[in-house]
Design brief:
mainly alpha; three-stranded antiparallel sheet
């Protein structure tokens, strides 16, 4: 049996800003490009690879504007958090408070973000 990991053993989670929207959109596109539903929506693999980054960038930019975008220092994963209803940055602060983080950003900032 694998022993439980200490709480800080995993990669840091950082709050992203608009400077990494392109990279994070590509991370999401790469995760979705070969799913069955993606193949059904856009049957041509080359077209999917061309279309998906821009398509998912819309979601990333929406989350940056009114929610929270979390990533890792290496920007190799991403989570988009959107408030229920007409969300604003104030709602994003509320989400952090509900998670017990107060107004502190999660993790450590990534230089250049």
């Amino acid at each position: 049996m694998t022993p439980p990991r200490p709480p800080d053993a995993g990669p840091a989670v950082v709050i992203a800003d608009g400077t990494c929207a392109g990279v994070l959109s590509q991370v999401i596109a790469d995760a979705f490009v070969d799913l069955a539903v993606s193949r059904w929506l856009v049957p041509d693999p080359a077209a999917r690879r061309r279309i998906f980054p821009g398509y998912f960038r819309l979601s990333v930019e929406h989350a940056l504007a009114g929610g929270i975008v979390c990533t890792t220092p290496g920007q190799d994963s991403v989570a988009l958090w959107l408030p229920v209803g007409g969300g604003t940055r104030a709602s994003a602060r509320g989400l952090r408070r509900a998670a017990g983080r107060g107004d502190r950003p999660v993790g450590r900032p990534v230089p250049g973000l």
